[in-house]
Amino acid sequence: MVATFAEEEVERVVEGVVERGDLPLLGQDPHATYRLGIMGGTFDPIHNGHLVAAEQAFGDLGLDVVVFMPAGRPAFKLDKRVSSGEDRYAMTLLATSDNPHFLASRFEVDREGVTYTADTLELMRRMYPENVELYFITGADAIADIVRWRDADRIASCARLVGATRPGYDLDHARTTIAASPYPFDVTYLEVPALAISSSYLRDRVMGGQSLRYLTPDPVSGYIQKHGLYGVPHGRYES
Ligand code: ATP
Ligand code: MG
Asked: What does 78-100 look like in DSSP terms, one character per residue?
């Protein structure tokens, strides 16, 4: 594996995680194989598309748990206005709390500076024993981009990728790009029905005074209203 973190740095991160109980304990039985899904994203806000994709990956790939990890300061959104890490974490926690195999993690939100997926995956890879396989879940359109992300070789050596697609989505571009990459990406594509939802669409709806019902769990809409996110006037609460 291509490594960039010193052993002491990894130990420091592990200590913080154990202290906060922030990531699942997995890998205890050396004869068993464990599968840990990681759903990364800005989650501004989290929506049913994210949740359905993660649930489908959980079922199809036989994952033990899916950890939702709101990005601290996403590298590719530095020029955009993004809600605070606390707000995005809170919404992620609210959206995942009723599912016993979903967890929300502060792992990236609590890290200083810009967050790179390669760093997160390397740290996770080094924190867990070998019998824990990591699956990084993402939208299929993002898969082709990952090849160009910083330290794509590290991403390829630390985790398998799971690309969520819509039925009828043309995978040719993603497949060709991955095949042309010099790195050994291991990608599984999953078909997830009915997913033309995005955070931008939800933000636009909030700005236009439209409801988010059935697009994101109600506690998330409630949080957006109460905290005046995305241009909702403060203190106005409607569902
Ligand atoms: P934005 O509209 O702001 O770009 P988004 O809806 O794409 O937001 P992100 O937080 O950027 O949400 O996405 C996190 C991950 O979830 C990405 O890998 C993205 O490809 C994936 N994703 C987003 N929407 C869906 C969806 N409807 N179905 C499946 N995966 C999705
Ligand atoms: Mg997006």
From this structure: TTS----HHHHHHHHHHHHTT-T
